[in-house]
């Protein structure tokens, strides 16, 4: 494809803005990408042709960032150089900015492989200009209805946008994702045999009660979480595909998640069985790319979680786990993880309703906070903060958490002080913010950690283990 004057102007403008941001100590790929796309709306198409080893796309509702970073860890262990929107800027502007960063002033790419996290609503625009060689689809859940609309619309958009020649890496246990392999040229499935939390029945919110093919109610023999499990349609025969990559013997051991695939043992330093799917997606993609299990195993083992993905910090008062919450199913899994710790709990929940969080917070009533209510004796306190602090406090009251244990504090610094001001013996602390509160709270926690001369406990432990 011939590069026009618009392309060169867009590229150079993007690189100048990127340099300016770096000089001023700011990070970000969104502004350079925004300006570049304004100058040349086809710039992604021009930049993408340089990646002769392929472009890997990661999309879905939950787990995109963690999956992409797990795969990136494997690629680094394999010695690969690749373009990557690691900061998680997964809209057109952020993706363009990441590609510009990897492109020289002469228009030549610094890598032949790209790994790109793509927001599910952005997939149609992305695939108009870029043909990914491999696409990982994690799962589909309701998320920000005011932005995405109904879930079936999102699923239909993504499915209809993926090129036929793209190799699909699909979650076999999610019927909304598994259907993507029907009539597609090549699909590889990953799944889970069972986890310690798997059940024969489920009262959780499920997005796929009915067959995506004929509309008949799906029959399940096992639920892992949400609609993920072993399913079959009695109407048309649609069923959970047999996974090429199947996780067995899944269990936790001293903060590590262990599992086996084809008799090979793997482990990741992530809490929550939902993160198992992220690891399997990365593992499946890595095998498809031709990497050996030894490289994949080390890449998963040394992985350090990204900001706010079950990230652990050390403070003088004790350790804190920080994790993003953004929709009912994800929140349910975080609650399940907290309950599974089997210790007294101190919790800080921050809810905002800005555009990036989703204006509609009615989803809070779909979260199974009643689980916290049934373990109310273990809860020492719940600090509620953010623009909608009162809303989350009200929801928790109706879920059975004692009003005496609910604390309202709109100041983020004050909220952290309320959480860490006192600690019961063995008490585990969790901070659960929505997106626009994630980084402000993380900065406060990180500053306190640094001022105390401490380091991230999880990162330190994994770094020592990797060197051993």
UniProtKB/TrEMBL annotation:
Its EC number is 6.3.5.13. It is an enzyme of class 6 (ligase). It catalyses: beta-D-GlcNAc-(1->4)-Mur2Ac(oyl-L-Ala-gamma-D-O-P-Glu-L-Lys-D-Ala-D-Ala)-di-trans,octa-cis-undecaprenyl diphosphate + NH4(+) = beta-D-GlcNAc-(1->4)-Mur2Ac(oyl-L-Ala-D-isoglutaminyl-L-Lys-D-Ala-D-Ala)-di-trans,octa-cis-undecaprenyl diphosphate + phosphate + H(+); beta-D-GlcNAc-(1->4)-Mur2Ac(oyl-L-Ala-gamma-D-Glu-L-Lys-D-Ala-D-Ala)-di-trans,octa-cis-undecaprenyl diphosphate + L-glutamine + ATP + H2O = beta-D-GlcNAc-(1->4)-Mur2Ac(oyl-L-Ala-D-isoglutaminyl-L-Lys-D-Ala-D-Ala)-di-trans,octa-cis-undecaprenyl diphosphate + L-glutamate + ADP + phosphate + H(+); beta-D-GlcNAc-(1->4)-Mur2Ac(oyl-L-Ala-gamma-D-Glu-L-Lys-D-Ala-D-Ala)-di-trans,octa-cis-undecaprenyl diphosphate + ATP = beta-D-GlcNAc-(1->4)-Mur2Ac(oyl-L-Ala-gamma-D-O-P-Glu-L-Lys-D-Ala-D-Ala)-di-trans,octa-cis-undecaprenyl diphosphate + ADP. InterPro entries: Folylpolyglutamate_synth_CS, Lipid_II_synth_MurT, Mur-like_cat_sf, Mur_ligase_cen, MurT_C. Keywords: ATP-binding, Cell shape, Cell wall biogenesis/degradation, Ligase, Membrane, Metal-binding, Nucleotide-binding, Peptidoglycan synthesis, Transmembrane, Transmembrane helix, Zinc. The chain crosses the membrane at residues 7-25. The active site is at residue 360. Zn(2+) binds at residues 211, 214, 233, 236. One of its GO terms (molecular function) is tetrahydrofolylpolyglutamate synthase activity. It holds the Pfam family MurT_C. GO terms for biological process: cell wall organization; peptidoglycan biosynthetic process; regulation of cell shape. Residues 58-196 form the Mur ligase central domain. It comes from the Bacteria. The keyword Metal-binding applies. Pathway: Cell wall biogenesis; peptidoglycan biosynthesis. Residues 324-437 form the Lipid II isoglutaminyl synthase (glutamine-hydrolyzing) subunit MurT C-terminal domain. Belongs to the MurCDEF family. MurT subfamily. HAMAP family: Lipid_II_synth_MurT (MF_02214). Forms a heterodimer with GatD. The lipid II isoglutaminyl synthase complex catalyzes the formation of alpha-D-isoglutamine in the cell wall lipid II stem peptide. The MurT subunit catalyzes the ATP-dependent amidation of D-glutamate residue of lipid II, converting it to an isoglutamine residue. This is Lipid II isoglutaminyl synthase (glutamine-hydrolyzing) subunit MurT. It comes from Desulfosporosinus lacus DSM 15449. The gene is murT.
């Amino acid at each position: 494809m011939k590069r026009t004057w618009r392309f060169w102007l867009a590229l150079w403008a993007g690189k100048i803005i990127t340099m300016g941001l770096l000089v001023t100590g700011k990070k970000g790929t969104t502004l350079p990408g925004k300006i570049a796309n304004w100058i040349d709306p086809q710039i992604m198409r021009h930049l993408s042709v340089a990646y002769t080893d392929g472009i890997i796309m990661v999309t879905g509702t939950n787990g995109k960032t963690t999956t992409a970073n797990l795969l990136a860890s494997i690629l680094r262990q394999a010695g690969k150089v690749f373009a990557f929107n690691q900061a998680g800027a997964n809209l057109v502007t952020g993706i363009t900015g990441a590609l510009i960063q990897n492109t020289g002033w002469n228009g030549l790419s610094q890598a032949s492989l790209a790994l790109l996290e793509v927001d599910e609503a952005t997939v149609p625009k992305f695939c108009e200009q870029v043909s990914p060689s491999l696409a990982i689809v994690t799962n589909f859940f309701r998320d920000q209805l005011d932005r995405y609309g109904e879930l079936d619309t999102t699923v239909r958009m993504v499915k209809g946008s993926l090129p036929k020649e793209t190799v699909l890496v699909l979650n076999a246990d999610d019927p909304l994702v598994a259907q993507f392999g029907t009539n597609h040229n090549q699909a590889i499935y990953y799944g889970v045999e069972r986890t310690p939390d798997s059940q024969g029945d489920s009262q959780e919110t499920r997005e796929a009660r009915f067959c995506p093919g004929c509309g008949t109610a799906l029959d399940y023999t096992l639920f892992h979480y949400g609609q993920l499990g072993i399913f079959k349609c009695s109407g048309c025969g649609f069923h959970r595909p047999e996974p090429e990559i199947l996780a067995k013997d899944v269990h936790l051991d001293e903060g590590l998640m262990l599992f086996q695939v084809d008799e090979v043992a793997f482990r990741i330093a992530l809490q929550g069985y939902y993160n198992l799917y992220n690891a399997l997606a990365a593992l499946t993609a890595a095998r498809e790319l031709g990497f050996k299990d030894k490289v994949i195993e080390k890449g998963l083992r040394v992985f350090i979680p990204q900001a706010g993905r079950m990230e652990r910090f050390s403070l003088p008062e004790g350790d804190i786990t920080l994790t993003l919450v953004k929709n009912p199913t994800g929140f349910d899994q975080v609650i399940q993880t907290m309950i599974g710790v089997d210790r007294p709990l101190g919790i800080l929940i921050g809810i905002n309703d800005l555009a990036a969080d989703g204006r509609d917070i009615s989803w809070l009533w779909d979260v199974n906070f009643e689980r916290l209510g049934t373990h109310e004796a273990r809860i020492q306190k719940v600090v509620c903060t953010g623009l909608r602090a009162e809303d989350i406090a009200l929801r928790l009251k109706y879920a059975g958490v004692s009003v005496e244990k609910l604390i309202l504090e709109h100041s983020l610094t004050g909220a952290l002080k309320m959480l860490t001001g006192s600690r019961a013996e063995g008490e585990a602390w969790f901070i659960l913010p929505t997106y626009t509160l994630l980084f402000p709270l993380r900065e406060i926690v990180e500053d306190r950690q640094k001022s105390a001369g401490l380091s991230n406990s999880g990162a330190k432990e994994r770094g020592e283990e990797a060197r051993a």
